[in-house]
Amino acid sequence: MNLTKGGNVNLSQQAQGLTAVSVGLGWDVSAFGGGIDIDASALVIAASGRILSDQHFVFFNNLSSPDGAVQHAGDNSTGAGAGDDEQILVDLNRLGPEADRIAFAVSIHDGGPKGQNFGQVRNAYIRVANRADGREIARYDLSQQAYSETAMIFGELYRHGGDWKFRAVGQGFADGLAGIARSFGLTV
Q1: Residue 173 contacts residue 188 (beta carbons within 8 Å)
Q2: Which helix (H) or strand (E) holds 165?
Q3: Where are the domains of the chain?
C-alpha cells in the first residue's frame, strides 16, 4: 500500500498474525550532492511523547534497544546500490506495553556544517515489510518533495488498541538529528 504524507495503514489487518517487521529506508544522492552520509535511527516512544530512555534511541552507535525488540541492521554511509540502504528490525511481541510508538528518523551526518540537506537527496522512501514472508505492507515515497532540512522523521509505527499501524510522517528538522532527539526528550 502506497501512502501519502499523513496517511496511515493498519498493519495488523493487512498481515494477519503479524509479529515482526523490517522497516527499510532508502535514498539516492543527487549528482550535485555527492559525499552525503545519511543515517537511519529509531526512537521508542512512550504515550507521553517522550523517549523511554537513552538506550531506546537505536542508531549506528547503539544497535539495539534494551529489550532487543528494535535492532538496527547496520550503517550504509553511501546510499549506493538498489534496495534498502538501511533497515531497522522490530519484534512487535518483545516491545513492552510502555512502548506506544517507534519513530523512524533519517539524518545527514554533519549536514549543517557541510551545507548538505535533503534537497540533495532523491528517491527517498520508507517501507514496512512482514519479516515472516518478506512481503511489503506499506510504503511512503518522499522523492517528490524537496527539503532544506538535515534530518527527517520518515514515519512511525504505533499501537492503536490491539493493532499496530504505520503513519507516513515526512517531518523535517533543520537542526539535524539533535533536533529530533530533543523533540522526544533526549538531552544532547
Answers
A1: no
A2: strand 163-173
A3: 2-183
Query: If you compute the radius of gyration of the chain from its CA atoms, what whole number of angstroms results?
Result: 15
User: What is the DSSP secondary-structure string of 109-126?
Assistant: TTHHHHT--GGGEEEEEE
Q: 112 is written with which cell numbers?
A: 549543517
pTM for this structure? 0.90
Region of residue 64 (left: phi > 0; alpha: psi -120 to 50; beta: else): beta
Element (H, E) at 13: helix 11-14
Q: How confident is the model at residue 26 (pLDDT cuts 50, 70, 90)?
A: confident
* Three-class secondary structure of residue 175 per DSSP: coil
Helix (H) or strand (E) holding 177: helix 176-183
- Which class in CATH covers the domain with range 2-183? mainly beta
The string of pLDDT tens digits covering residues 77-136 is: 555 556 778 899 999 999 999 999 999 998 888 778 888 887 777 788 889 999 999 999
**178: helix, coil or strand?**
helix
Q: How many angstroms separate the first and last alpha carbons of the chain?
A: 36
Looking at residue 62, what DSSP letter applies? B
Answer for the pair 3, 132: CB distance below 8 angstroms, yes or no. Answer: no
